[in-house]
TrEMBL record, chains A, B:
<dbReference type="InterPro" id="IPR017321">
    <property type="entry name" value="Hist_deAcase_II_yeast"/>
</dbReference>
<dbReference type="GO" id="GO:0000118">
    <property type="term" value="C:histone deacetylase complex"/>
</dbReference>
<keyword id="KW-0156">Chromatin regulator</keyword>
<keyword id="KW-0804">Transcription</keyword>
<keyword id="KW-0378">Hydrolase</keyword>
<feature type="compositionally biased region" description="Acidic residues">
    <location>
        <begin position="1"/>
        <end position="14"/>
    </location>
</feature>
<dbReference type="InterPro" id="IPR023801">
    <property type="entry name" value="His_deacetylse_dom"/>
</dbReference>
<comment type="similarity">
    <text>Belongs to the histone deacetylase family. HD type 2 subfamily.</text>
</comment>
<dbReference type="InterPro" id="IPR000286">
    <property type="entry name" value="HDACs"/>
</dbReference>
<comment type="function">
    <text>Responsible for the deacetylation of lysine residues on the N-terminal part of the core histones (H2A, H2B, H3 and H4). Histone deacetylation gives a tag for epigenetic repression and plays an important role in transcriptional regulation, cell cycle progression and developmental events.</text>
</comment>
<dbReference type="InterPro" id="IPR037138">
    <property type="entry name" value="His_deacetylse_dom_sf"/>
</dbReference>
<feature type="domain" description="Histone deacetylase">
    <location>
        <begin position="74"/>
        <end position="399"/>
    </location>
</feature>
<feature type="compositionally biased region" description="Polar residues">
    <location>
        <begin position="15"/>
        <end position="27"/>
    </location>
</feature>
<keyword id="KW-0539">Nucleus</keyword>
<feature type="domain" description="Arb2-like">
    <location>
        <begin position="452"/>
        <end position="707"/>
    </location>
</feature>
<keyword id="KW-0805">Transcription regulation</keyword>
<dbReference type="Pfam" id="PF09757">
    <property type="entry name" value="Arb2-like"/>
</dbReference>
Length: 719, 719
């Protein structure tokens, strides 16, 4: 690639002249007495007795930004690799004694220190295994550019998705970085070292076949993997690349997208494609999307675990490894494993804003070491907090060297992250046996042979309420609402003349079913149960002479896509019911009972009809809500009286396991008036809660009716 | 315990005089040049550089059966530990050079060989941490017994559940075995070794607090664990005991049953309690039952993974570790881990008849090494095939010493074993956060607030068939059948006069629902679908002028308890329907369509009405079955014509993923006539199969009708 090295290696002690480990053919035991039995070299080379390799070369620091502007700090700072190397030294992982003793130390204590693998320049033919010749030429050309040209180039790239700076020695460092990755991987595959860590830069995983991107020129890991596959076709056929950089490795994904022999698994922050590298210009699904599973022969060998948000930590990463990464990796059964090890998901990295601890990096490394006979190479990618990357890298290196990963208390898995993992499982279940339990055949479920269970159940519920209480569907005379709420609003026959009315606004009943573990998610009808806490309240209300309006709100959860339009719909429905029915009723005592997410309807009614003919609350004697989801404030900036009224006239039962009880700042917050009179239930789950508080609620309602009747101050009169 | 050792250790090289590892205070580097930097002892003691300990003492072979009868071979053979020790030697894991060089070798290559931990006699006070003084006295008394008394004792015990032989040196060996376990564990906890393997016998895990049992006198592991907890209260508070012996470790379970600080997890063959140690005399739930989760403060710290059958292998053990053992162990977060390592689940052990490979033992060890900062001690329990236990123990030892576990292709998980894991998850979900996703609140599901979903769905199905085809329920005039089959048999109005009749005997429709991963198994009604493949066949039959009888068989799966009585019930129903209805119909062409497990009804009818007024098959023009469960033979020893008729007049579509296609011996077997004309479907799952073959089936039926009509040879006439 080039004739003259412009710089000498600045450091270090250590044996940079050796390329094949302490047990290479040239090394032999000189003191036969210490090794009296006739163990063959092969037995000595048992991986437990081989050292961990380390590739580091300070010349890779030559790629830098400084010359373009004196105070232009760039996160991909040359000190990154230097700091890691220094941390290795401080941790005692690198031999620092007199060079002349190195050979002896390594012979006697082969696993005591990391074995130095020299970096070298990647060959053109190696780079072209993963890149187009045009791309190689382009990178080479930057060596001949003038400073002005480089400045111009950097200015152009830095402001685009390519996000790159280019210096006169960038090509030099990038070629060394790629070559370092190649020799690191080759030494592991050849069995010269037990495993290895390449502390290299510039990073590689964003570089595409035909363009640089995201601080990356050559995609180091694919260059190294393809080289190993070519040179060791027998022992290195199938390769797993695990990318835990906080950014998606678009370049690696695209290079191997149709390759069945390279499994690419990436854990990264995705944020619906808004996190770097984000959305390509053509506005397709961003590269990091969970939907991308590979193509052609490579279908199934691309696994994207794209987090919904920043802030992920050990709980999420350990769960991802246990539930997705390790099962798929074991089924794939690779011959060689490479970690694209960015440390920007580490606790302390501002760009990543995640919280992965060094202990967790150690555990993930330990798990990956169980694959491929332990043939594992770690190649540095991103990571920009110098302390965080150093501590993380030391933890990984210690684990590679045989230290057990540190004892660790794993935080509880974030619920939304659990959903991400579930989604990944669903996508990958087409390609991996181990991903199938728990995944439903949605194509079949949504075929014309299927019917939505909700309709069955509401029909049955309607039949029961018709039979027991002669309740009838209320026709909703609005086209849009009608379609959604057909059969969903039922009323007792003479509700308009009842003196007491109970309006129940509830979620559909709960469906509980124990999936047949062995048979994926085929649920069994005879082991599935519909659990309904509302009916007993209606039974009670009827017995007490209430008129009842039962409003079933099909799907009021906020997160699913299908229900994005539900809040406006439920608001319209409640307004329409108020204006056309409830307000016109004769009732003296109207109570609202909100159950589950549907209690949004209560809030919407109180807010949107706060200034109607009369404020609707003046007709309402009390509000009872059962909440196991979002707690919803009832307030208005134009109506100071709303929140105090709500506080005084409500009982809001909140599930025992609700987040608001776990976080003291939340617990304090919900004491505010706009959340009503909040009561912590001893139970969780709507049905159990409604059962537990039935007596209290019924007494509370009756007391209010009695008070109003005794004082003559019925809400209707006061209106 | 005793003053004189009756025997000298027979072997070996190695440093039995040292008790605290190569970095103990007494050892120092004599050649400062090889260690030029000033690393502290602590840094040197980093576990990656500590050796793996090995406890072995040939005196434990003194417990033997031979003296009682010359040819009495007993599986718990003294050679067991000897063979393992020899295998370690052959594998080069044990230093065998000149004793005078040992110290130097260990100093220079501390991790090259296993570090010998001498066995010693357990102290009375140590034994009494896990046993009653009475039990200790009883064991000691055996030393003073005459040969005749010992013979008598052995004879008595050998025939009972205690299953024990006692020799004059049994107490001697047992005390050494327990003491060996104690010092092995203590050395690990104290950090003198990285981890350790105690090759000891007699085993311990069946021994109860107050009695010997199953070849065991003292329960070595509990004695050692309690001693460590007592002597290292700070560093060894919480202990995980993982017992992979193929038999349940009843003794360990019972000793720690109420102890919250010792988590006992056992993987064992259970077979509904029929496998040793099986059922205690009082006939409670056998100790090994999944139901046993601990008691009092120890509730949740007992986990039994009891296999339904022998024959388990790597697929099941790896799945158990991934899905149950590791998540619970990580949540428990132990300070110290002990493996009660019987190797009788190993491939080759006749008593265990399981198929765990050495590679799998290595992987399980590797996973456990990630806990408790790597503080792991392995104590031998059972295992009786000398080759199997040696190879397995070597694999475990290599892993302890830092070798990566071997690359392994993991077999697919047995479906029934998957159900066992699911059941364990359900039981443990009360105590472990990590076990909760996927577990239903069955108490709520079966409360009086719930309704069985099956009834909702069948009602809805009935409504559809009534509306579309005016089908009506057939009243079943038999008390017992009526209750089960109310609404389950529907017929078209004039079926008795139809010339063509289709009898459909089917499972309930499938319920597909994607559980909300984050929210346990709360299923959402709007994301749940009822999928039904039968209705389109009925639509077709009606269009073609068939009379239709639709028989819904609520729960015909054979494995669930609820349906144990179903086969006789479905037989009664089919007989009753035949005798009272079908046989009396005018039809010339009767077809049976069996779907799913319910196709048992087709078989029962053909067999039980083979010699009625006329053999029912003479009225039947053809049989079509869709099968994704058991394939059922239709044959009779008194009626040679039945199987050939069935072969000639049936189409039996079998799911693409059915076991019978995977096992060549099964594939051959189902070609026999009694299974009918078996066709491999390209699809799996009843609905997909019925869709895929609708045209073929309909053409096949029509062709038969046409043929019969053309030849005038209708079944009715031929009858």
């Amino acid at each position: 690639m080039r004739d003259v090295d412009p710089l000498e290696t600045e450091d270090d002690s250590g044996q940079t002249d050796q390329t094949s480990g302490p047990y290479s053919a040239g090394t032999s035991y000189d003191d036969a007495d210490t090794e009296p039995d006739s163990l063959a070299l092969e037995q000595l080379k048992r991986r437990g007795l081989l050292p961990t390799g380390l590739c580091y070369d300070s010349r890779m620091k030559m790629h830098m930004n400084a010359e373009f502007s004196n105070n232009a700090h760039h996160p991909e700072d040359p000190r990154r690799i230097h700091e890691i190397f220094e941390a290795f030294k401080r941790a005692g992982l690198i031999y620092q004694g007199p060079p002349e003793l190195a050979a002896r130390v390594f012979k006697e204590m082969p696993t005591r220190y990391m074995w130095r693998i020299p970096a070298r320049f990647a060959l053109d033919e190696e780079i072209c295994l993963a890149h187009t010749p045009a791309h190689l030429s382009w990178v080479k050309e930057t060596e001949n550019m003038s400073l002005a040209e480089l400045r111009e180039l950097t200015k152009r790239y830095d402001s685009t998705r390519e996000s790159l700076y280019v210096g006169s020695l960038s090509c030099y460092a990038a070629t060394l970085s790629a070559g370092g990755a190649v020799d690191t991987c080759k030494n592991v595959v050849a069995g010269n070292v037990k495993n290895a860590f390449a502390v290299i830069r510039p990073p590689g995983h964003h570089a595409e076949m035909d363009q640089p991107m995201g601080f990356c020129f050559f995609n180091n890991v694919p260059v190294a993997v393809r080289t190993c596959q070519k040179e060791y076709p027998e022992t290195c056929r199938k390769v797993l690349i695990l990318d835990w950089d906080v950014h998606h490795g678009n370049g690696i994904q695209n290079i191997f997208y149709d390759d069945p022999n390279v499994l690419y698994i990436s854990l990264h922050v995705y944020m619906d494609g808004s996190f770097y590298p984000g959305r390509p210009e053509n506005d397709e699904i961003p590269d990091g999307g969970i939907e991308h599973c590979g193509v052609g022969a490579g279908l199934g060998t691309n696994v994207n675990i794209g987090w919904h948000a920043q802030g992920m930590g050990d709980g999420e990463y350990m769960a991802a490894f246990q539930k997705i990464v390790m099962p798929i990796a074991q089924e794939f059964n690779p011959d060689f494993v490479v970690i694209s090890a960015g440390f920007d998901a580490a606790d302390g990295d501002e760009l990543g804003a995640c919280f992965v601890t060094p202990a967790c990096y150690a555990h993930m490394t330990h798990m990956l070491m169980s694959l491929a006979n332990g043939r594992l190479a770690v190649c540095l990618e991103g990571g920009y907090n110098l302390d965080a990357i150093s501590n993380s890298a030391v933890a990984v290196a210690r684990t590679l060297m045989g230290e057990p990963p540190p004892q660790m208390t794993i935080a509880k898995l974030n619920k939304e992250a659990a959903r991400v993992l579930n989604k990944v499982q669903v996508y990958q279940s087409h390609y991996w046996q181990c991903m199938r339990p728990g995944v439903v055949d949605m194509a079949l479920a949504q075929s014309n042979r299927s019917q939505r269970l909700h309709d069955f159940v509401r029909n049955a519920q309607k039949d029961v309420l018709m039979m027991k209480h002669h309740m009838v569907p209320l026709y909703i005379q609005r086209e849009k609402l009608h379609r959604t709420f057909e059969n969903q609003v039922l009323v007792t026959p003479t509700i308009e003349t009842a003196s007491k009315v109970l309006i129940v606004i509830h979620d559909p009943p709960e469906l509980l079913s124990q999936p047949d573990y062995g048979d994926h998610t085929r649920l069994e009808l005879h082991n599935s149960f519909i659990v309904d806490g509302v009916t007993s309240y209606i039974d009670w209300a009827r017995k007490e002479g209430f008129g009842v309006m039962d409003i079933n709100v099909p799907n009021c959860a906020e997160r699913t896509d299908a229900s994005a339009h539900m809040p406006p719909q439920i608001a319209s429905l409640m307004e329409w019911l108020w204006d056309n029915y409830i307000e016109l009723y004769d009732a003296d005592h109207i109570f609202l009972l909100g159950v589950g997410n549907a209690y949004l309807g209560v809030k919407m009614l109180l807010i949107n009809r706060r200034e109607y003919t009369v404020a609707c609350r003046e007709r309402i004697s009390g509000v009872v809500n059962f909440v196991n989801g979002n707690l919803r404030p009832v307030k208005s900036q134009t109506d100071d009286g709303l929140s105090p009224w709500y506080k005084q006239n409500s009982q809001v039962y909140v599930a025992a396991d609700h987040n608001c009880w776990l976080d003291p700042s939340l617990t304090q917050k919900i004491e505010k008036r706009r959340f009503g009179t909040v009561v912590r239930s001893k139970e969780s789950g709507l049905t159990r809660m409604m059962d537990a508080h039935a007596e209290d609620v019924q007494r509370w309602i009756q007391d209010r009716v009695s008070e109003e009747e005794e004082s003559g101050d019925t809400t209707a009169e006061s209106a």
